[in-house]
Design a protein that fits this description.
Number of helices: 6
Number of strands: 0
Distance between the termini: 169 Å
Largest sheet: none
Radius of gyration: 57 Å
Strand content: under 5%
Length: about 180
C-alpha cells in the first residue's frame, strides 16, 4: 500500500481537519473562511441569498411602541380638537350676543329721547298736541255711500245651531219671569 492518504467518503459527510496554524480572531468572524483561502463571488452570492427574517424582534418592539404612543395620544388629541370647536362656537355666540346688546343699547338711547317718545305716542295712541288737527281716514268707498251700517239680514227659514237655540231659550226664560213661575 501506499503511504499517501486517500480521501474516502464517510457516511456523515466530509470531515474537516483542524488546522494546526493559529487563526486570528478577526479571521474567524469573517464569515467562516479559512486563512489563505480566497473568497469567490459564489460565496458572496450565497451570503446575499441567505437573509434573516424580515420582521425582527426590534421591528416588532418599535411597532408596538409606536402603536402605544398613538393610543396614548388619541384621547387628549380628541379632547383638544373638541375644545377648539367648542371655543369657536362660544366665540360666535359671543359675537352674536354683542351685536344684540348693541341693538338694545341703541333702542334704549332712542327711547330716552323725548322727541322719539312724542312721535311714538302720536302714532300708537293718536295723541294730538294743542293746536294740531286730527284727520282720521276710514275705509274709502264710493262717494255716494252713507256711513250707516248695513242692516242685518237674517233668514227666518235658515236652521239655527242647537247651542244658539239653547242660549236663545235661556235668554227668553230670563226675560219673562212670569213664564218661569208657571
Amino acid at each position: 500500500m501506499s503511504t499517501a492518504r486517500t480521501r474516502r467518503g464517510r457516511p456523515g459527510g466530509a470531515r474537516r481537519r483542524a488546522s494546526s496554524r493559529p487563526v486570528r480572531a478577526a479571521a474567524r468572524a469573517s464569515g467562516g473562511s479559512r486563512p489563505g483561502r480566497r473568497s469567490t463571488r459564489s460565496s458572496a452570492r450565497a451570503a446575499a441569498g441567505r437573509r434573516g427574517p424580515r420582521v425582527t424582534g426590534r421591528a416588532v418592539l418599535l411597532g408596538a411602541l409606536v402603536l402605544l404612543l398613538a393610543l396614548t395620544l388619541a384621547g387628549p388629541l380628541r379632547q383638544y380638537v373638541a375644545g377648539r370647536q367648542e371655543l369657536a362656537e362660544l366665540a360666535a355666540e359671543h359675537d352674536a350676543l354683542t351685536a344684540r346688546a348693541e341693538q338694545l343699547q341703541t333702542q334704549l338711547d332712542r327711547q330716552a329721547d323725548p322727541a322719539y317718545i312724542a312721535q311714538r305716542a302720536r302714532e300708537r295712541l293718536t295723541y294730538v298736541l294743542p293746536g294740531d288737527r286730527l284727520v282720521v281716514v276710514g275705509d274709502a268707498g264710493d262717494p255716494g255711500d252713507t256711513a250707516d251700517a248695513p242692516a242685518a239680514t237674517t233668514r227666518q227659514d235658515e236652521p239655527v245651531p242647537w247651542y244658539e237655540g239653547l242660549l236663545g231659550s235661556v235668554a227668553a226664560a230670563d226675560a219673562d219671569p212670569a213664564a218661569a213661575g208657571d
